[in-house]
Amino acid sequence: MPRDNMASLIQRVARQARITFRSPAGPAFGENLHRLQQLLDEVRAEDLHLAPRGPSAAAAAPGGGPPWAGVVPPVSYMHICETENFSMGVFLLRSGACIPLHDHPGMNGMLKVLYGTLRIACMDTLPAGAAAAPPPPAAGSGPCLRALFRSRQHYTPASPPCLLSPHTDNLHQIDAVDGPAAFLDILAPPYDPQHGRDCHYYRLLEGPPAGAEPPALPREVWLMETPQAADFWCGGEPYPGPRVCL
């Protein structure tokens, strides 16, 4: 596709997202979602006037910690647009940053890497009473839930979008691998605590390793709900790309 009209591309993504998530239970949802996925797959960093952060963003700090630790947010967000049906923006992760394991209650989502490499772990919650064994002793006193650890994959700008639905891959953890990374994010509908769509964080509870190799996926696991980690917070940055009008 010609890339001489960058504003048109991100504008079309937003318009298609509005069409898609206006009726997520409608008969045309699957077709509209596929069209949105195709458009999102075309987006590149330069379309949004973004460039990968320089070597200084990936350099190690004295003592071996990340250069941003305790100084600037590990993750920043660039707001593009939001309606009652969806939100769209860009997340920027510094080298070594992690968006901890969290959920998206009743929400659909799409994630497209713009630069860098992300490792994304995806999980599904399992129905209450599905547990075959009690939580491990490390669970402590926090609320626990049983989940299916479905996948852990690397995503780059060449990868198709990572998708989540209210029931599939709804919990995920996102890690920047070997340097800074950025991704375009669509959530539908947006987070809204007043309507039961608040973000909850979790910690994976694992027993002693059975061997040198990590357990195969998919597998059932226990998760414990936790407060937001003290070393994770998200700052804001201005969006430099083409304006989106809805």
Automatic annotation (TrEMBL):
An example Gene Ontology CC term for this record: mitochondrion
Keyword Oxidoreductase on entry: yes
Database matches in InterPro entries: PCO/ADO, RmlC-like_jellyroll, RmlC_Cupin_sf
Keyword Membrane: no
Entry keyword set: Dioxygenase, Iron, Metal-binding, Oxidoreductase
Source species, domain of life: Eukaryota
Membrane spanning stretches: none
One annotated GO molecular function: metal ion binding
Protein name per UniProt: AEDO dioxygenase
Organism: Pheucticus melanocephalus
